[in-house]
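I am hoping you can look over what I have pasted underneath with an eye to the fold:
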Amino acid sequence: MRKKQRLSGSQNITGAKMLKRNDQISPANANDRSDALVRENLHLKARVAELERLATIDTLTPLFNRRYLMQELDRWCWRAHRYGGTFGLLYLDVDRLKQVNDTHGHVAGDNVLCAIAEALSSATRKSDVVARMGGDEFAVLLDSISAEKLAEKAESVRALLTALPVKTAGPTLKIDVSVGHCLIESGSRASEVLIEADRTMYADKRSKYGEDAR
C-alpha cells in the first residue's frame, strides 16, 4: 500500500514537472502559431487582391474590361464635376471583323483584336484608361483633354489603326475602325457619355457603309 502511494506521489511529481516544461515552451508555440496565421492571412489578402485585379482585365487582351472602364467613367465624371476640367471618351468599333473571322478564322480575328490593343496602349498615356468593351469594341478614357484635342485624337487613332498591319498565319491584314467620342465635363453622366460616344461611332460607321453599318 505504501509502495503504491509512493508511486502515485512520484507520478504526480513527474506530471507536475511535465506541465511546468509545457508551460515553459508554450509561448514559443504560441508565437509559431501566430506567425503562421499572419503568413496565411497575408497569403489570403494577396490572393484576394489578385482575384480582384483579374476581375478587371479582359480575357483576350491585356487591357482593362468593360466593368473597370465603367467604374472609371463614373469616377471621371465625378472628378469633372468636383474639380472642373475636361476629359474625353473615345469609342471604337472594328469594321467587318466578322468577315475576317469567316474568311481567315477566329485566330486571325483574335490577332486583329490583340494588335489593336497593343497599338492603343502605345498611343496613350499612363494616366489614360484603355479597355476592350467586348467583342470588337474598345474604349479609351483620355485624361485632361479639350474638345478640340479630343477630336484630333480620334482622327489620329483612326489613322494609326488603319495603317496597322496585322500578321496572321495567312496574309497580313489591314483593318478599318469606326471612332466616336464624347467630352466629359462638369454635369456629365457616365451613361449619357457612353451613349453619345456610341452614337457618334455609329454615325461614323454609317458614313462609310450606309445602313449596313452593323
Remarks:
- The domain at 66-212 is CATH 3.30.70.270 (Alpha-Beta Plaits).
